[in-house]
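Margin note: ligand = S-adenosylmethionine.
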Amino acid sequence: MLENQLLHSSHQPVLLTEVLTALQIQPDGSYLDCTYGRGGHSRAILSQLGNNGKLIAFDQDPEAIENAQQLQQLDSRFTIIHSSFDQLKAQCQQQNIFNKINGILLDLGVSSPQLDNADRGFSFMKDGPLDMRMNPQIGESVAQWLAKAKVAQITEILKIYGEERYAKRLANAIVAARTETPLLTTKQLANIIATAHPAWEKDKHPATRSFQALRIFINQELQQLQTTLPQAIETLAPLGRLAVISFHSLEDRIVKRFMRDQAKGTHFPPNLPIPAAMMKPNLSIVGKPIYPSDQEIRANPRARSAVLRIAEKCE
Ligand SMILES: C[S@@+](CC[C@H](N)C(=O)[O-])C[C@H]1O[C@@H](n2cnc3c(N)ncnc32)[C@H](O)[C@@H]1O
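Resulting structure:
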């Protein structure tokens, strides 16, 4: 019964077969799923592990943790940790598995249950409290931040994280509106943006970019990714695999540059007598980026912007 509920979770894992192939699961290996969500990837990894295999998962969302705790009770090979994945190194050191992990998965961004539950405040399609925190137990909500942010700060966030051309105009509209009534709900914000936006893009709600920007900012998504990638390499055993699924160009750029730089090795001025071992790259890139098939996108439209990049830790 419980197992049934877990199996029918409301998030469809993206690029599932491709992720399993990328991680080259060894039955006795140890794996990390940094973004449990509803455990789609985690359960598939567990299904390929033998009795001595291990899977440790992270999520910062209390609802994801509740779901994972049910799985933990059913499967002794599985451990869930309620933490941001930027604590990866410290957590693995505590568990004595640092430098021993055979594969790490990051499936970035938000899950379908987070988007679909109006109470979480991620969606401009549904009315709910303007929150957008993946972990509502810490930090400020978008409503709290927008209540006091200056026009220049809002402009910067919409521009950088939403690549919104009309960032300043929208920021002015937000600040003008909040002097009339406090901004507390997703629909209020979506309507202000829709009214102020001068150039609606085809098939795209005018608040799409702004909501993306505020979500990335309030959860510090790009900073967390940037601090986690180097920790992931350290945590892997030699020849361990790193698989990262990104959903927008800002994330993917960070992953792509990181893998490329780590695959180049350290660069010293050409005339310095540096031993070859010190110049060794840390990673090798495995294959080309992988995109979902048309069939997967038809079955799960949320997969459409996904891209999977794979790298292997050098010996
Ligand atoms: C795209 S979903 C993952 C879905 C999952 N692979 C599945 O098949 O169900 C992303 C998940 O990562 C979590 N997440 C995002 N950033 C995180 C971070 N910095 N630390 C921990 N969890 C994070 C979110 O709360 C969300 O549950």
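Residues 2-113+221-313 form a domain with the Rossmann fold fold (CATH 3.40.50.150).
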